[in-house]
UniProtKB/TrEMBL annotation:
It comes from the Eukaryota. This is Carbonic anhydrase. It comes from Pseudo-nitzschia multistriata. InterPro entries: Delta_CA. Residues 147-168 are annotated as: Disordered. Pfam families: CA_like (PF10563). Keywords: Membrane, Transmembrane, Transmembrane helix. The chain crosses the membrane at residues 17-37.
Length: 432
């Protein structure tokens, strides 16, 4: 009789088949973990590499050597520029620009014409061009003045003179004189010259040679001979006679856009106030930085209005003329009076914002290539040629208070009182 084996059975783990299967499973698990780790490392490296690829807010389209992307056809504005000659300032053709727009300054030329105080988009006007000047043609104490700076320095104010009539602010020694040249001649000379020299105006106070965003070069794709760290005054001419809302709206030269739907016979019937109410310029001043956090994508439409960034908020209004280095305090523009709306503050803006603007300019029907670079700045207009109708629109949150003088240095006060008329803001109830 065989006795039953009541001893415990051997554990399955000692079974050879189980051992083989268990070992294989563990090997697969280890291999899977290793592969997962390697994949994660590769993904991290790929992400890191992707982040290192420079991104751009500006289209990189390469334009062929053509004047316009549109099919050739009649440009209704072409040649409408009346080409008025500059005149001797002695004959006082009308108030001139660019002027001192410091709060409290009033020009010395009596006029009964009032600037257009409305937003241009609230009128029949539309932008007909955009261009800019090296440095500023206007002057705003503490924002863009003789104490500003840039990669190539600044212009200064002349020493005090007993003869205000001969005063030439913003004069730069050693810079070529463009006063006897037309605007087209100045542009042609600029494009042909090796140094691309134009007369620079005043600079803003933002520039810092120790801050990379003011010194790091930017690879320009569309604008010509522009520079990071420099100050530029941008102008948007507007006109009620422009080809608003059509492919012919933007024109170079801007005079074609201003006079597009206005023949000389009709123009001759207009009074000075009619012109100042129907033609105007927005002016906004920028220091270019190589920093995408200052990117604004749509400069071609007009100046930037941003209450949080104080852009387009402190605006000076007056009537003046067209500008540029073919005019100075001896030779004046005959295109006057027109409304000027000038932002008193200087703002930082990315180089890519300008490059995007130049890209958009290349997309217009008219050839705007002569406005893809900075134009020269007219010297600051002397007091006797500046209209006395300066106005400043107050916002509801701004109280009317005195104390303007505390913002100015003794030298700046002397300058305003010697060559202009200085008024405290408390002397005015709503506009000053």
């Amino acid at each position: 009789m065989v006795e039953a084996d009541n001893s415990p059975s051997k554990p399955n783990s000692e079974n050879p088949v189980v051992l083989v299967l268990g070992g294989t499973t563990i090997a697969f698990l280890i291999a899977t973990i290793v592969l997962a780790v390697q994949k994660n490392n590769l993904s991290a490296e790929s992400s890191s590499a992707a982040l290192e690829v420079p991104m751009s807010n500006v289209p990189d389209n390469k334009f062929y050597d053509i004047a316009s992307i549109f099919s050739l056809g009649d440009n209704k504005c072409d040649g409408t520029n009346p080409k008025f000659d500059n005149v001797d300032c002695i004959h006082v053709p009308g108030p001139q620009a660019g002027a001192n727009v410091t709060k409290g300054y009033v020009g010395g030329l009596e006029t009964d014409v009032e600037p257009n105080l409305k937003n241009y988009w609230q009128t029949a006007m539309c932008p007909v061009n955009v261009h800019w000047h090296l440095g500023t043609e206007h002057y705003s104490v503490g924002e863009y003045d003789e104490n500003g700076n840039g990669p190539h320095g600044n212009v200064g104010l002349e020493p005090e003179s007993g003869d205000a009539e001969s005063y030439h602010d913003g004069h730069t020694e050693g810079v070529k004189d463009f006063a006897n040249m037309t605007d087209d001649e100045v542009d042609s000379r600029f494009l042909a010259a090796e140094d691309h020299e134009v007369r620079g105006g005043f600079r803003c106070h933002h520039y810092d040679e120790n801050d990379e965003k003011f010194t790091k070069p930017y690879e320009w794709k569309h604008c010509v001979h522009m520079e990071v760290g420099e100050t530029y005054e941008v102008h948007w001419p507007h006109s009620a006679a422009g080809a608003c809302g059509t492919v012919d709206q933007y024109q170079t030269p801007f005079y074609d856009g201003v006079f597009c739907n206005l023949d000389l016979e009709t123009f001759s019937t207009l009074g000075p106030q009619d012109i100042a109410s129907a033609v105007g310029v927005q002016a906004q001043i920028f220091t270019i930085v190589n920093d995408e956090s200052y990117f604004y994508p749509d400069l071609i439409r007009g100046w930037i209005v941003d209450e949080q960034e104080n852009m387009g908020q402190d605006v000076a209004y007056y009537t003046g003329s067209t500008t540029g280095t073919s005019r100075n305090n001896d030779i004046c523009s005959a295109y006057t009076p027109i409304t000027w709306q000038v932002d008193r503050k200087c703002h930082m803006i990315s180089a890519s914002s300008f490059d995007k603007l130049c890209y958009d300019m290349k997309l217009q029907r008219d050839d705007m290539s002569k406005d893809l670079h900075a134009h020269g700045s007219r010297e600051l207009v002397k007091d006797s040629l500046v209209a006395n109708n300066q106005a400043r629109q107050l916002h509801e949150h701004e109280p009317v208070t005195g104390g303007d003088e505390s913002e100015l240095t003794a030298e700046q006060l002397r300058h305003l009182r010697t060559y202009g008329h200085y008024h405290k803001s408390s002397d005015h109830q709503e506009w000053y």
